[in-house]
Amino acid sequence: MTLIPNGETLSFISIHKTDDVRQLALKSRPDGVDMAYALEQIAGWQAARRKLPSWADTDGLVFPPHLSMEQCSSEPTAVYKQRLAERLADGNAERHVDLTGGFGVDFSFMSRGFRHKTYVERQETLCRVVAHNMPLLGVKDAEIVCGDTEEYLLNMPHATTIFIDPARRDDHGGRTFAIADCTPDVVALKGELLAHADYVVVKLSPMLDWHKAVADLGNVSEVHFISVKNECKELLLVLSAGGGRQGGAPLHVCCVDCQQLADGSWHYVSEEYTDGGDICALLPCSSPSAVSPSALLQPGCWIYEPNASIMKAGCFAMLSARYGMPQVAQNSHLFLSESLVEAFPGRRFQVCAVTELNKKALRQALSGIAKANVTVRNFPLSVADLRKKLKIKDGGDTYIFATTLADSRHVLIITKKAPAQ
């Protein structure tokens, strides 16, 4: 891959950087223009504009092939990992090592503030791209190592933090979600990783069974679910020699939406991985509501849908304990309160009506509603089937939650969304 093309190619990229790449590919190649390179750079810049806005604003960066751009972290998640690395270092930011460097997004953010920073990647092209880009991004004196992760790990100097993002595609290009199916195998390398670092941060697919991952690795001290715009993007596990059951410390679980870091960051301790003790005493909890869910679920009350990170983590009992809210039913994952709780980490709705599914009740409750946003939770019909039954279109400012109550009744909860804070 040519890193610095000729002037004609650079000029073509500058002129056409906002054009449709597919349409550009159909045009004849202008004299002197390396068209394949130009299209790759234009596509890369357009992807960066969405995922990495500060990179898109940096002149002179070189972008890698499409797959590397697709797999790289977004800027919000990389900034979150930067903050995580800073906290773990706790003033002792001596050395950070990224053992699966890729396009270098996570490395560029996480390594800032460390005295020594090492990027390891086996693909020579990516190493050349990163070596070119890092100084432009303000990451200076980075050591770029083109080599095998496992070979480098065996002889590397001790680090404050190691970051590793094992590949989640099999030999046929399909996605994999189990740790054992990723490359490199972090479970097999755990001993070497912990021998060479104070902390090891492992990035995994949020589709993974995180309880099994924690059990398989054994030394996990923190679990982080990271969402962007209410879509869960990443699962991070922090390993340390004293973490997990071996160290006797509780497992800390963080659920965060990066678009709401100021008010959406939510931290709690998972009772499943704590040895004894009153877990609720560790939390800034409200008193549990003395009102039953069926009594609360009336027009005028408030209903809450947890954000995507909390839904992935699945610690709903802890959420209920923290805010003193009952769930509509055990498997609904919808929470209730008499008055608005603005700090709740998720979406908030005020209940307009609650109806069962008999024709007379539906006709009365849905009167004047031609469009609505429909969600089903623990309900026998799909969204498409329910929408067909109700004869309403998608959209509008009405939100309908279809769920099953504790007494097995199927109901529709018709709501309006609370204004954004």
UniProtKB/TrEMBL annotation:
Entries under SUPFAM superfamilies matching the protein: S-adenosyl-L-methionine-dependent methyltransferases (SSF53335)
Residue span, PG-1098 ferredoxin-like domain: 302-345
Residue span, THUMP-like domain: 346-417
Pfam family, any one: Thump_like
Highest taxon listed in the record's lineage: Bacteria
Transmembrane segments: none
InterPro entries (alphabetical): PG_1098_Fer (IPR054168), SAM-dependent_MTases_sf (IPR029063), Thump-like (IPR041497)
Listed name of the protein: Contig71, whole genome shotgun sequence
Species annotation: Prevotella pectinovora
